[in-house]
Amino acid sequence: MYYLEMKRVHFKLKQKYSTTGPFFIQIIKREHDMILDGKTTLKEAADKEILSQYILGTATNFSLHWADCDFVYMPLNTGSHWVLLVFVVKERKIKVYNSNKRRSDSLRDILQYKNCITKMLPKILDFHNVYEAIDEEPMGKREILIEGVADCPQQDTSGNCGMYLLKIAEFLMMDMDLCELTADGMGMFRKKMVLELIEYSNKRLSEG
After folding, report:
1. Whole-angstrom Cα distance, residue 162 to residue 104?
2. Strand (E) positions, the chain?
3. What is the residue extent of each domain of the chain?
């Protein structure tokens, strides 16, 4: 996801977004389960650097504080499949992009994470005053809504979910039409990503 954060700066994208690492939601679930078992507290969980650095925008050189974002892109591995979660900050809603709905409906793959997303994440956001920072009411007792995206592009092979996640996120970040994302273009997308990473690396080297 660092690659996608880099694109916002390197290609001067207009959309205000940040990303999380691949284990962000899994860690929230672990902490949520530990709270329920009485093994930790909300304060201890919310204050963990591995969570707070993403919300506060200190995880990478390109990260943004969530209060400054319109969207936060969160990859989630459900065990054998990658799913993209997109947090729409002002709407307090997470959209689920599942590129392999033949396995199930859009939301079934993330059922085990539902409670930590809807109940725990709002408390962490309030702990870090995300909504107060943009002069809005905190989450309080409200839950984050979860919505499956019906027209998500679908992969044609079982091993392509990771690449689809990256390309769906990239298309959304660049305000491109997801209808243009097809299985036929996946090979070209892989080459394009490699070339962009090489270009960025060469630029960094030339800048010292």
Report:
1. 17
2. 17-19, 71-77, 82-88, 93-97, 145-148
3. 2-203
- Helix or strand run (H / E) with residue 6: helix 2-10
Report the predicted TM-score, pTM, of the whole model to 2 decimal places.
Answer: 0.89
**DSSP conformation class of 80:** S
Residue type, 124: I
Q: Would you give per-residue pLDDT tens digits along the chain (208 residues)?
A: 777 887 788 778 899 999 999 999 999 999 999 999 999 999 999 999 999 999 999 999 999 999 999 999 999 998 888 999 999 999 999 999 998 876 556 688 899 999 999 999 999 999 999 999 999 999 999 999 999 998 898 888 777 888 889 999 999 999 999 988 887 777 787 787 778 778 767 776 777 6
CATH topology of domain 2-203: Adenoviral Proteinase; Chain (3.40.395)
